[in-house]
């Protein structure tokens, strides 16, 4: 059993740890994705700002050679409409991700060169005049790539900003912002998660193990007490009930109720065996005495008395056998039984017994057991009646009712349940010669209950006892 509890603790701990692990992985993934998205957005904003600064300079006519392209070591490319690199960061050695792999600008006229140069021959790049401000287009994120600036290679997010000079030149400015901050933050967060998550899972597993052990401690107490009860066979003992008012407390309460019912059942069985032994002892002793006398003095044999004791012994054995079958849970037969005909059959040949009621009242059950009930009720009624016993068979809604009334002294209210206990005889019927062994009414009620019905006793109209057998009517 302790292995079972250990297994329960292990399974609960494993399940809790797995659930928390899945939740942590999901939450960690969401945090990393959100962090990366925010940092990439920030890098894109920085790249856009750099590209706009260069595009603004180009739009106002700044010459390529005068562009400030070396701020913050961010790679910048200026590409004309033909895809030719016309300007780039001074220390740019290699670049990917912009679609233009060139890092060395090609000779080209300055955006401010319009052919009017104050007497110069036009071969000097500085001879042109600045144009008026042109138009800057909407920025667009190109994507991620790499660039080597002054010997350092890093990852960058590139943004392209189109610009149109006053002279009509279509240029595109590519600028990148480093992703080192994004990589560093993501790697740091990932490292923290890789270190912290296992520690947190270990704490969760440890706490779950302790909590589960504490929760199962009352169950272990119940198990130990049940084992002690089994070993000692002392059904008077009870398992401890924790004061938690939870499922374990209800389990302990139910276990104690089961033990109480088992103790009561065993006690009834012991009383039954003791009473049966006592009841059997008298006819057997009487029969043995008569046979021993007859063996020594055949002329003194009381044959009628021997037969009477034998019949009584046979009936008692039959009653005990039927009670044993009922206690074993034997299901009654599902035959179609006419209670009216059965009542007339049971009353046939009995003096002072009359039967009236419906012509046919059918129920489903065992004809033999129901006949035994009617016979026992009639025997009891005749034993206490002054002169008459009346049997009434009728329908009451969906139920079939058999009422057996006598004109005797009746049954006191305090004894109306006790008379259905086994081997119980009231003082007026204690004589074994006039009464039975006290099993007839007990058998009658047990059979009624097994058939889904009830057997109760009330006051009869004539002043005696009225026994009412109520059974479910036959299903259509």
UniProtKB/TrEMBL annotation:
UniProt entry tagged with the keyword Kinase: yes
Annotated region (Disordered), positions in chain: 96-153
Record carries keyword Protein biosynthesis: no
Domain HAMP: 213-267
EC id: 2.7.13.3
Record field: transmembrane: 189-211
Primary location class: membrane
Domain Histidine kinase: 275-475
GO molecular function, one term: phosphorelay sensor kinase activity
Reactions listed under catalytic activity: ATP + protein L-histidine = ADP + protein N-phospho-L-histidine
Matches recorded under Pfam families: HAMP (PF00672), HATPase_c (PF02518), HisKA (PF00512)
Biased composition (Acidic residues): 113-129
Compartments where located: Cell membrane
GO cellular component term, pick one: plasma membrane
Keywords for this protein: Kinase, Membrane, Phosphoprotein, Transferase, Transmembrane, Transmembrane helix, Two-component regulatory system
Record protein name field: histidine kinase
Source organism (scientific name): Streptomyces coelicoflavus
